[in-house]
Design goal:
Number of strands: 14
Strand content: 25-35%
Largest sheet: 7 strands, mixed
Radius of gyration: 20 Å
Helix content: 25-40%
Strand order of the largest sheet: 10-9-8-11-12-13-14
Low-confidence stretches: none
Shape: globular
Structural class: alpha/beta
Number of helices: 8
Length: about 325
């Protein structure tokens, strides 16, 4: 027994460094669990300690390779359920497939809902996530969902930089609410990039709404994937008179040529969090990684002790 009674933490292979940091903040050791592969590639989970009657938290972002990490999580949930864990709380800092949250075209799947169904069928009793791409994903679950946000962490970093004359910029119409919340913490105005997307992962800037001339622009999004939107937006801001451009996001997906585009762009700094583990080859000098471990640890403790999670952001 720990000083928090029957709380136990486990992790898969997606981001063990973040799990270790969370465990350190809470003051418990990560549970003994072997996550491996059979010779044919099938996932093999072996719990090394009893979880009977425990409140278990499994920390596993479903980042790339998303299918591998998702299967690890599902099989670990099943193992915990069959080992008589009292509750199985899945902590998914980055929720993969979140962008497939609706039918954009005829005959499209809604994969974000399918993943929710899989997690619940496997035996998850609660989900904790961070900056879901679409807030309505919370409604895809029939179990409690705690939705954490990284805006306070990102805002504190930029406040400490004492940037003169900042303006917070949303890279699209869908991110206006996030940009406004970020801007309120910085005491800055907002601007919006009005763009159209002719195809998947291809963005074309059309207009900039708001005053950005002579100001330092801070682009904010929930994730940076191929970095096309962010770098194109930064270029447009500078062409229209912005003094300098920073960028920040919660989830550094950085697939394809994402890192290369950021490296070549005129963005001064890209601030991200460690919801997704960044390999060494993606840790370029321009990228600054902030930790969400303390926030997630506090959320876990509040869930475990039946206290409000929303008060973290009041």
């Amino acid at each position: 027994m720990t000083r928090f009674g029957d709380l136990k933490l486990f992790t898969g292979n997606a981001n063990p460094e973040l799990a270790e940091e969370i465990a350190e903040h809470i003051g418990v050791a990560l549970g003994e669990c072997m996550v491996g592969r059979f010779s044919d590639g099938e996932v093999h989970i072996r719990l090394g300690e009893s979880v009977r009657g425990s409140n278990v938290f499994v920390i596993q972002p479903t980042s790339a390779p998303v299918n591998e990490h998702l299967m690890e999580l599902l099989i670990m949930i099943d193992a915990l359920k069959r080992a008589s864990a009292r509750t199985i709380n899945v902590v998914i800092p980055y929720y993969g497939y979140a962008r497939q949250d609706r039918k954009a075209r005829a005959r499209d799947p809604i994969t974000a809902k399918l993943v929710a169904n899989l997690l619940q069928t496997a035996g998850a009793t609660r989900m904790i996530s961070m900056d879901l791409h679409a807030g309505q994903i919370q409604g895809f679950f029939d179990i409690p969902v705690d939705h954490l946000v990284a805006i306070p962490i990102l805002a504190d970093y930029f406040l400490a930089k004492h940037i003169e004359n900042p303006v917070v910029v949303s890279p699209d119409m869908g991110g206006v609410t996030r940009a406004r919340a970020f801007a309120e913490r910085l005491g800055a105005p907002i601007a919006i990039i009005d763009k159209r997307r002719p195809d998947v992962n291809i963005a074309e800037v059309m207009n900039i709404i708001g005053d950005i001339k002579g100001k330092t622009a801070i682009l904010i999004d929930d994730m940076i994937d191929t970095a096309g939107t962010i770098t194109l937006g930064a270029k447009a801001l500078l062409e229209r008179g912005a003094e300098a451009v920073y960028a920040c996001c919660t989830h550094p997906v950085l697939s394809g040529k994402g890192v290369e585009r950021l490296e070549k762009s005129e963005i001064r700094e890209v601030v991200v969090t460690n919801t997704i583990a960044l390999p060494a080859e993606k840790r370029i000098d321009k990228i600054k990684v902030l930790s969400v471990a303390e926030l997630i640890a506090e959320a876990i403790l509040r869930v475990h002790t039946h206290r409000s999670v929303s008060q973290l952001f009041d």
